[in-house]
Amino acid sequence: MSTLAVLLRKPLQPLRRPGRTDLGAWPVVAGLVVIAVVFSSLNDRFLSAENLTNLALQMAATGTISLGIIMVVLLGEIDLSAGSVSGLSAVIMTILSVNHGWPPLAAVAVALVGAASIGLLHGWMFTRLGMPSFVVTLAGLIGWQGLMLYLLGSGGTINLPFDGFLAKLSDTWLPAPVAWLIAVLIVGVCTAAALIDRRLRQAADLPVPSITRIALRLGGLGLALAAVVTVLSADRGVPLLLVIFAALVVGLDLVLQHTVFGRHMYAVGGNAEAARRAGINVTRIRLIAFAAASTLAAAGGILAASRLAAVNQSSGSSDTLLMAIAAAVIGGTSLFGGRGRAYAALLGILVIQSITNGMLLLSVDSSVRYMVTAAVLAVAVAVDSLARRGQPR
Amino acid sequence: MFSARTVSKKYGAVQALDEVSLDLSPGEVVALVGDNGAGKSTLVKVLSGVVTPDGGSVEQDGRPVRMNSPHDAQRLGVATVHQDLALCENLDVVANLFLGDERRRWSVLRPIRMERAARDLLASLDVRIRDIRVPVAMLSGGQRQSVAIARALVGEPRVVILDEPTAALGVEQTAQVLELIRRLRDRGLAVLVISHNLADVRAISDRIVVLRLGRNAGEFRTAESTPEAVVAAITGGVALAGAPRAGTEESA
Ligand SMILES: Nc1ncnc2c1ncn2[C@@H]1O[C@H](COP(=O)(O)OP(=O)(O)OP(=O)(O)O)[C@@H](O)[C@H]1O
Ligand SMILES: [Mg+2]
């Protein structure tokens, strides 16, 4: 009997060992490898430099929207209005710059500020009126799309001039030497940061990561960057759009990991009541998160408009939102709040967009594409829910 | 001296606190006892700014102070370990210890400073946690309670309130926490401890305050009281000896 009990108990233990439940980004990376192998075996153009460049371009807009989604999902909330807000902001920007002849940057600034106020409005309804974020942003999903259609009027489509600043944004490519220089700089800065951190921790008599670990991580980063630059330079070069998106990801991650605000974001997402008792202004954090989500959605919408060189009635339409949410979750952001990094947007959108891109190459019907995307999202959420349940309480 | 003066609080139809008063002095451990639902936790929440009372006031050295948010409590040097552990399970031990009071330069965290201070603080309290950078969700109940208590000390408070600090702990951890409470008193802090364990209460407190059905139901000098009298005050039975001190209301 007792041996039976021991046998029954034993297999459970490795699951509960601290540190083992968190696999980090590895499942996603493994998924990417599978996707690459499957699609490249079905269509040899999938891994061509040209197609991967297109993939990079396709990722940027939705990925930026996904970054905004992460801001609210980290709090355990949701923003369903991100797609509509992205479309509306793109339309506002286009009307100002094309119809009213505003300088492009001013039009962009107004669109971003407008989106930030929309986000504040959502946050206000959520925090002050106590409406569930799901309902607030569902109303936003419909309402802001309505406003966009109203502004577009009967015309329906407004083109951005092809040689204008805004369209050029998505038709600018880094020359190979510049791209290499940036890659080297990034690795250099990361190396310096890692070594300085290690030195400081040593001086403070705290445990330090081993040199091999640091070297492996930096080596991996260097290899990844080199691969990206090599592949993209073989075609038109590294697109500016990708650089903008990546900079937003890195910037937001630095804010989340290294500032007091970021720490409080995680705290509110993990246990809002505990955060409140610790003296954190929970309402302020929530307002900022919603404002940031809408602002990033607007930025994504502007990038999308730039790529299309136009806005139309389907700007920011429904599958933009689903892709953005799916990307955040697939990348490892927990829908239950408090867990996930900004890099989730990058990894997740890479997965989602690779699948979409691959199926487009194979001319799979959009009906099938939707179902596959939904299945991937469902699996990601299921993994998230199971991981949460598996946590020791 | 830090006091609650005729504090009342209603939750819907439930009168959780009814004109309750309580004094806390430096270097003194006060035990707050009473049956389940007597209003102990509610009083703690009032003293720590988590709940705003409907009537009465919180006073410092006889003057009413503003106590509308946990931030006010922090400012006044009142630190609380709540009964429902107020920890963020997704954050690591260091982050939890400094939550709301992060070491920073401008807005940027200073993780090394915090980690070293956390390690030193936990060591001084004899709290053993192998890796203080794992999420609190990975710790045992006793370890979490230790983190919660250590957390209260980070802001160098003058008043520490512990709501059932030993309820979930084993024998050894309980002894450690009691020893820790004595150390707090020796540092000159005013300490308020809530406990259902009268043996613990007698072991560490200087004074015992009894609540019953949301009212003051007696107050004793621990050294001069008998266990029977305290129990009687808690249950509302008849006291056989060691009658409650004059000046406090009795509901029994
Ligand atoms: N948030 C709340 N909403 C409604 N009623 C509450 C709330 N908090 C406490 N109460 C009620 O107020 C009364 C006092 O509760 P309190 O938690 O202060 O008791 P307690 O003395 O701490 O009990 P215990 O020993 O079980 O912890 C109880 O009747 C309780 O049901
Ligand atoms: Mg209680």
From TrEMBL, chain A:
GO terms for cellular component: plasma membrane. It is found in: Cell membrane. It comes from the Bacteria. Coiled coil: none annotated. InterPro entries: ABC_transp_permease. The chain crosses the membrane at residues 23-43, 55-75, 105-126, 133-153, 173-194, 214-232, 238-256, 287-308, 320-336, 343-362, 368-387. Keywords: Cell inner membrane, Cell membrane, Membrane, Sugar transport, Transmembrane, Transmembrane helix, Transport. It is a multi-pass membrane protein. This is Xylose transport system permease protein XylH.
UniProtKB/TrEMBL annotation, chain B:
PROSITE patterns: ABC_TRANSPORTER_2. Residues 2-238 form the ABC transporter domain. GO terms for molecular function: ATP binding; ATP hydrolysis activity. InterPro entries: AAA+_ATPase (IPR003593), ABC_carbohydrate_import_ATPase (IPR050107), ABC_transporter-like_ATP-bd (IPR003439), P-loop_NTPase (IPR027417). Keywords: ATP-binding, Nucleotide-binding. The keyword Transit peptide does not apply. Pfam families: ABC_tran (PF00005). Signal peptide: none annotated. Coiled coil: none annotated. This is Monosaccharide ABC transporter ATP-binding protein (CUT2 family).
